Amino acid sequence: MAFDVPTTRGAYTSLSDGWTYLNAGQRAQVPERVISAMTSSFRNAPKSLAGETGGGAHGQSRRSGASAAEELALSARRAFADITEGPVAGVVLGSSREVLIDQLCAAMSRRLSLGTNLVISRIGSQVVHAPLRRAANLYGARVRVAEADLASGSLPAWQFDEIVDAHTRLVVVPAADPYAGTVAPIAEISRRVHAMSPAWVLVDATDLAAYRHVSMSEMGADIVLVDASVWGGPEVSALVFRDPSMFARLASLNFDHNVRGVGRLEVSPVSPALLGGVSESVHHLASLDTRARGSRRHRIETAMPQVAEYLSDLTERLVAGLSNLPRVYIIGFDEENASESVASRRDYIPRVSFLVDGVPAETVVGRLLANGLVTSVVDVAQSPLLEAMGVGESEGAVGVGLQPFNTPHDVDQLVRAVASLG
């Protein structure tokens, strides 16, 4: 069945303002149902609720007199569990990825001491890398970096055999690079890491989850990090542990040392109003296939492959159009093998960064805005990969991020606007 773009577009009232949004990597558009849910949560969070008995895979009984805020937190945990295929009891909520990584490293302080190793990679975002490096400096762990192929932006798995050893305690790998769109071979990396060391593998699946279904078991991840804002949800993040018993191996950050489970890490409360939007944002992803039935997780597994296929076609169209422009260089795109490179974009998420020779990125973005197209100037300081590629020495890069509501017309309009720069 062809992906239903008109119905998807109808879920976003923001699309009626006349702009064409191609900046999902910087700020995703929010479905109307998510906005309504957060508005309702603001009003209802202080209330108490009547008790009831839940059902389903993640159902639980609710005690009489429980606050609506508690129920909103539980619904957010269930939603993140459905997104990652992890256990509800393993979901740690936080206001951002940076906050959660800080909390995890503090809880792992004894495991990240002198003589141990912490492995990060060249792809991903500084939002995750910065707190990891701070923690290594604070607790004494040595940081090792898995390098990316600077021509394609891919992350070879074989190198983890060389940089991971028995002293490695944590390996952090993004599932996809948010700027070049590279998808990492997470399952292969996890297999190699677990064969070489007792380290936990933490996968930042944030950018991948917006376009594909994520499975902790398939990736072999011990912990998955996700941020709902990237797929159009509120600014709420979660660390999902594959086994709740892992919390017992972490130092408690809670002043109450009798707290067990997620309470050992959750020391920064998240607004109940924001938590109320998480579940609706996941419902939105599950409803992208209007014909799918069954549990929310099953509907996500049905809908997201359709989203991935549709947006892969749009990305191919975008890359093919831009690659025909003589002054445009697409980051991670091999000009010598153009036809093969376009086809390989199916292994990427729909994020594209490009340069226009002799034209500053801000000028390009300004020209696109004049044509009703919203893109973004890539902040190279936030991308270890682009920084290593030397993009910072140019006049900046333009970032394009697609969402399921984008159309071939949007892509063609972008290519024509870039071509008008000469």
From TrEMBL:
One GO MF term: transaminase activity
Lineage top rank: taxon: Bacteria
InterPro entries to which the protein is assigned, alphabetical: Aminotrans_V_dom, PyrdxlP-dep_Trfase, PyrdxlP-dep_Trfase_major, PyrdxlP-dep_Trfase_small
Keywords: Aminotransferase, Transferase
Family matches, as Pfam families: Aminotran_5 (PF00266)
Residue ranges annotated for the Aminotransferase class V domain, each copy included: 71-226
Protein name stated in the entry: Aminotransferase
